[in-house]
Design a protein that fits this description.
Blueprint lengths: L1 H14 L8 H19 L3 H14 L4 H13 L3 H12 L6 H13 L3 H14 L4 H13 L3 H15 L3 H14 L5 H10 L4 H13 L3 H13 L3 H11 L2 H4 L4 H11 L2
Length: 264
């Protein structure tokens, strides 16, 4: 968080508007408070940082990096309403800044204003359709709101534009699972074909096979997951899935391999 604040400050400072007609001395004073506030942020002195950023902005309201960091300082002390107010002010000058839009959506979520956060995520994705972090946040929120049709549409549009990624396939499974607890496993199998090392895919696919009493399939997933390098997670899955009764249902060779994994 602290590093991100400093880096974003530099970006916004370079991209912000020029200062208004203020004297050289006022500019220096504003920057002095700004750098003091950054130091206070690094020390975790967030209330003090709020005061310093506010003073920097009183002297030079066009110092947008100070405004962004002020919003972050407000977030650190749990004052999301004030953070939102600052972000809205900055967005008046930089409406297409997806970093600001993401921060605004996050603040809205902290204030339990989820419908507004959804719209902000939609707006941000329209500005930058290639930003998959925005897409993931939007889709996750849509799933929580049971807006499955819109969530699927966003995922399919993204895949059509930029290609398949495993976590998007897992999201499709989670959506379809809400309609049919045993449905959607085709997305997990496709994700599995991409990489057996993915923890979410291994966990969900082995769980699916176990729920249908396809113990051999579940064991195959766990063993391949281990061979991919995810041994620790595979052992955890094996211990959570297989007891003595299920182990005895497996072919002899597979049972022996799984028992060996369980001793690691």
């Amino acid at each position: 968080m602290k590093t991100a604040v400093i880096l974003l400050s530099v970006v916004l400072l370079l991209s912000g508007c020029r200062s208004m007609d203020i004297t050289k001395e006022e500019t220096e004073l504003s920057r002095t408070y700004y750098h003091l506030a950054n130091a206070q942020m690094r020390l975790g002195s967030y209330p003090e940082a709020v005061s310093s950023y506010r003073r920097a902005l009183e002297i030079d309201p066009s110092l947008h990096s100070a405004a962004y960091n002020l919003a972050t300082a407000y977030e650190q002390i749990g004052d999301y309403s004030s953070a939102l107010g600052v972000l809205d002010t900055v967005l008046e000058y930089d409406q297409g800044n997806t970093l600001l839009l993401r921060r605004k959506a996050w603040c809205l979520l902290q204030l339990d204003r989820e419908d507004e956060a959804l719209q902000v995520f939609r707006d941000a994705l329209e500005v930058d359709p290639a930003d998959r972090e925005i897409l993931r946040s939007l889709v996750q929120l849509l799933i929580e709101h049971e807006a499955y049709i819109e969530a699927r549409e966003h995922i399919f549009n993204d895949i059509a534009r930029w290609g398949v990624e495993q976590d998007l396939l897992v999201m499709l499974y989670r959506i379809d699972e809400q309609v049919d607890p045993r449905g959607g496993h085709v997305w997990l199998k496709e994700s599995w074909n991409i990489s057996a090392a993915d923890h979410d895919t291994a966990e969900l696919l082995s769980k699916y096979y176990f729920s249908t009493e396809e113990y051999e399939g579940a064991a195959s997933v766990i063993l391949e997951h281990a061979r991919s390098g995810a041994t620790g997670h595979a052992v955890k899955l094996a211990k959570s899935r297989f007891g003595e009764a299920e182990l005895k249902e497996l072919p002899e060779e597979q049972e022996a391999e799984l028992r060996k994994l369980l001793t690691e």
